[in-house]
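Request: Mind sharing a record?
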Amino acid sequence: MIGPLVLALIALHPQALAATGQLTIRIAIDDRVVHRLVAPVLETTGGPAALFADNGVYTGDMAGDLIYFAQVSIPAPAVPADHVTVHIRDNSVDFGEFDVPLKPDGRGDLALKTRTGQPAIVVDSAAPPMPASTSVSATPVAAIEGAGPTAADKIILNMQVDDRTANRLHTAHLLVDQAGAVAAPLRDDGVAPDEQANDGIYVCQLTVSRTQTVVVNVFDEPDGVIGTQSIFLPSSSEATVHLQTLSVAPGIALAKEPEGGGGASSPTGGGGTTETGSGGGDRVSQILWVFIALFAVGFTWARTVVGQRWATEVKPVLARLERWLDLQEVAARRRRVESGHGAGHSEGGPEGGAPP
């Protein structure tokens, strides 16, 4: 599998330039670890922009492996150079400029990788070389302009990570598992939105694309990934998410369900939370209370129905059965009495020794 590379502008050797007049820029970005790319674009000076692709159309590329490729051809500069500069962006995220070294044959290859922190994209010196040639048509940028999520498709997340027990965070960042997302620093410096410096509560605010769930990754340098947590997003435009670090796997966990409606709450010194906004309550508690209420209604209904059936159907049958048993007992006594009288009369007859 081809390593991470970024297509860049390449200044051709003068002889090669005279023959072709074009430079071929090839760039690959390895996003397998951070997962932050959505629709990255390669911009060049004096040439077309091109979309990075991860669909297997490039020679040696594997679709869906999170290694993005782009390739463009641009006019060779009038004055030979040993590198060209390209620009990479992803929707509203600007990843900056990169110098691509040029080869004598008019090609420029560059391998990059995403990472947490800043800069978000850096040169990947450990990437294997690109194949000798690749073929694919650049996708015009105009075809995707304006295709990004609108404000209605986004949600603001107020993230709070409680590290008071595990004490694992030092230089921490938080990254959602969405293409194009940028790692946000988790701060405990008392600067808004953080409320108190050095209290062990790390906070950040970020805007993400609205999905039913979102996967959150917490990183800390130099330890790397602390943990990953899947979060159910409420339907509101803003939500507060409470996480806590753990000393064992999975590293982080939800302290409580996300609060929707833009309400904010902050952990208290005793380890609990004090709600200060108008956000919705704990989702699990709400579901539990609904279940309890439904159970109570169902139990009351069942008790009422059983009581009515008992009074109108079962109790009369039992009363009739009891009277029938009483009658049977009286009849049995009468038979025993009659049977006893008959036996006494027989013993007093001739066979008993009485005179005829």
